[in-house]
Amino acid sequence: MADISVRPAQAGDGGLLRDIYARGTVEEFTSRLAGAGEATRYHLVEMAGSAVAVLAVTDLGRLRPGAPPRSLLHEIKLRPCVRNLGVIEAVLRWLASETGAGTERELIVLAPLDDEPAVLAAFGLRESHRVFRWPVAANEVTAA
């Protein structure tokens, strides 16, 4: 297996992100990277010198006394050709070493419905939350 590395996405990576998502424009990705806040960091995953995935890590606030810091892993997009090649495992190892995920920091991972990736269980992650989404189209509905 080729070496897999994770690095922060830079403003000039818009073209790489466009290639991974296979839609949108370079300008849109460049603008979104430039507009990211301090709490959310985008990262590129590289394998054998090529960008193969993108992910976002967002630090979440905690008020509960004594609770460890919490981060959310989301916006995970892999090129189809690298599925089952250890990319997610490498990302989880990177998060453990770089952020203390699983030891000093709680990590929440968003996964698609009806998908329980075995790799998450292998790292000790277990289902703990239900996520509800309010899609943009639903904003036309007003509360009574």
Layout of secondary structure:
Elements: E1 4-8, H1 14-21, H2 26-34, E2 40-47, E3 50-60, E4 70-78, H3 87-99, E5 106-109, H4 118-122
Parallel strand pairs: 4-5
Antiparallel strand pairs: 1-2, 2-3, 3-4
Reported by name, the CATH topology is Aminopeptidase
Q: What is the CA-based Rg, rounded?
A: 16 Å
β content, as a range? 25-35%
Secondary-structure element string:
EHHEEEHEH
What is the average per-residue confidence, as pLDDT, rounded to a whole number? Answer: 88
**Which homologous superfamily in CATH is the superfamily?**
Gcn5-related N-acetyltransferase (GNAT)
Q: Summarize the biggest pleated sheet.
A: 5 strands, mixed
Number of helices: 4
> End-to-end span in angstroms?
56 Å
Q: What's the number of extended β-strand segments? A: 5
For the record, the CATH class is: Alpha Beta
Which range best describes the helical content: under 10%, 10-25%, 25-40%, 40-55%, 55-70% or over 70%?
A: 10-25%
Strand order of the largest sheet: 1-2-3-4-5
Report low-confidence residues grouped into runs of 5 or more: none
User: So what's the overall shape?
Assistant: globular
CATH architecture name:
3-Layer(aba) Sandwich
Structural class: alpha+beta
